[in-house]
Glycosyltransferase
Amino acid sequence: MPRVVVVSPPFLSHARPLSVLAGALRESGAEVHFACAPAFEPLAREAGLRFVPLSVTRNANTGVAESTRQDAEEAARLRAFLDATREGAVAALLAQARHRHADLLADPEGVLEALRAVDLEVRPDWYVVDQLSYPVTLALHCLGLRYATFCPGHPSYVLSGPDAFFGLPSAWPDALRPEPGGLTELRAAVERNDADFTALFTAFARRFAPSRPAPGRAFALTSPHAVVHGYPALPWLPVPSAGPLRLFAGHMAAPPERLDAEWGGRLGRLRAHGGRLVLVAFGTFLSARDDVLRTVVRGLLAGARDVSVVVAAGDRADALADLAGDRSVVARSVPQRALLEHADAMVHHGGGNSFTECLRAGVPALVLPFSSDQFAVARDAERAGAGVVLDPNTLSASDVPAALAGATEGPGRRLAALAARVRERGPRWAADRLSTAMESPTRGGPVDSAGPSPR
């Protein structure tokens, strides 16, 4: 069986699913090392993995972005991004486009040397790397090392052709379609980034690996062997007509643990006062949008007497403490996967993990996307009948009850059927097939037979 190094960026929303995949590879028989920033060593221990300390970016998020220790420049960029989300979808995406260089390619030479050192020490047969860890992928390309790609979030992060651009959503939900002028400005910004990053990649490869093939379009640089998606094989997803083996795992979540005594007691008290449970969580970055969290909770509690609410509020838990009561719990963090086994609905931001965890549990959602790939994920939820999508910046408390009713009363059999398909796969399914591909490596391969077809 192969020896594998799984390289993760220091972001909990990426590191956790990657550690789950790494653990599943270990269970498939591979010798697996998990390489990430030192703060993430506990994830390796939880999955029974060997840990390799490796930092691939200055930015980080260990669970709640605002409270993660970061330098002043990184903290300022986070504040600027959060401010931009208040202006709307295009403003948020433009802010992210402006921050691309510092976020994604801060120290490519340092990453190259760090990967070279890891390779000399561990001597792996394969690497698995997050698609958004572009300096790691560039380093692996330059070193000529075999790797598979893990795609977090929406599958369109793996570009499907010359008209696809990183940072430009492949689809928009009905409630958040930009005006033509804003979309034109955004397209121009992402096309400039594409050209600038491609020039940087080309120059870097020419300097440090002149005998290697040119890397091509920077944001399209992906394993030629295999791509693992922690996402369902929805039939309308855009895919390239040819390329690597693509494994659509449906989700990349560990089995939910049982609620501990404290959370079990909280759930019992909530059920006693409000029968239906709604989980509200905006992920590790966007819990900072406490204005929207407050609107959602007020709308849920006012809309029906039989609804109870659990809110993951991050660093804003104290600011939202006045919302806590007989039918509501406000906590800094919550056991999301465990609670979803008991929830009747969820309100989330369209993050890939939240979307797929809801699918796995068969829980409908009200989706409020803010940035990144969340608009494409939200459109998938809308199209799949797995949720209702609204604009978080125009949401009023009075909008919430009807949206919740639409999410919970509409999906029915479609959501149940999709949830069953998602549960059929998962991390071990993907790991078994990836291990087989690693034992018999070929350059390129078919799209997963149950995956989407080109449009």
